[in-house]
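(Structure overview)
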Amino acid sequence: MRQVKALVVTGFGINCEEETAAAWRLAGASADIVHLNDVLQGRVSLDRHDAVSLPGGFSFGDDLGAGKALANRIRYKPLPCGGTLFDELARFLERGGFILGICNGFQALVKMGLLPNTGGAYEQEVSLTTNDSGRFEGRWCRLSFLDSAPARFLGGLPPMELPVRHKEGRMVTRDEQVRSRIVELSLNCMAYCDEGGASTSEYPLNPNGSELCCAGLCDVTGRVLGLMPHPEACLSLYNYPDWGSRRRRGERNEEGAGLRFFRAIVDNIRRDS
């Protein structure tokens, strides 16, 4: 079985790199935690990896809005060899690579134009902005997966509970045309849902008021994926706040839902390679 290799970016306020690397490893991949500067200065190449992940955190203190400064650094800072890291990421995708952004990483992906990219021009088409509640939301919520999304490996996953930790997680579209294209192409691959699995805009089940009840997006290839909930924070039964009650109810599977999420990605990368 081929070893899937993941690169986990850190630095500049990103603070979920260890949990993200642990998730990749528990799911059967290897993971290298690398400071963004080591990539920008050419000391680490994307070519040695199958997946690049931008973890959660507060990159650059969210001084220009969540993920914006990180997106600008990736999109515009010149590399020693010429071009930008954004150019390298575009070539990485052309070679079949996979890109994952979680929370702050998701915010960066939409603000640099990698998601949802309905027009194929890498322009910013959506944003993740201030929650409808006007405050930071740290809570557990349920999300379901769209079977028809290009990221088809998510279609077999049942609804799952994951934590959110954000103040700017409300997905808004640039205009009605972008919104319609997202729906037409099934790029709204994850939605906040109720206990029955139905998408919901009701607070607090939907913690931020996202359009389309959106908890995550993919691009048309299914190989760029971003979500606001934190799968890396739910790798074990004991990560759930009610784990004791779950055990008393007879639950014996000690895997968390987030581990199943990462394993689906790793298995998909293996199949496609």
In short: The mean pLDDT is 96. The chain has one domain: 5-272.
